[in-house]
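#structure-requests
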Amino acid sequence: QVQLIESGGGLVHTGDSLRLSCAASARILASYIMGWFRQAPGKEREFVGGVSKNGISTLSPDSVKGRFTISRDNAKNTVTLQMNSLKPEDTAVYYCVAGPGWGRYDVWGQGTQVTVSS
């Protein structure tokens, strides 16, 4: 079973940028659709981006489009979420996910906290 380990979270100010990284424990990253979710206190978990197995296709919701970019490096077994122009409403725990298809994420990381102060 592959394990996902997120890093890069922290406390930033409105308008700042932050880069989250996700490292897979096994060299099978290329077999999975990868993505990121987030969950803020008292709110439902929200999808914030996904990237295809070959890294060519990406998906993102309107709430982060133009600000967040997801990418992957299968050779390094990593997935990255570049977050720009951060807002206080982006404050959440961010989770790296993997799965066999779009919307079918069955492997989750432990999460990393992102806090954006106003």
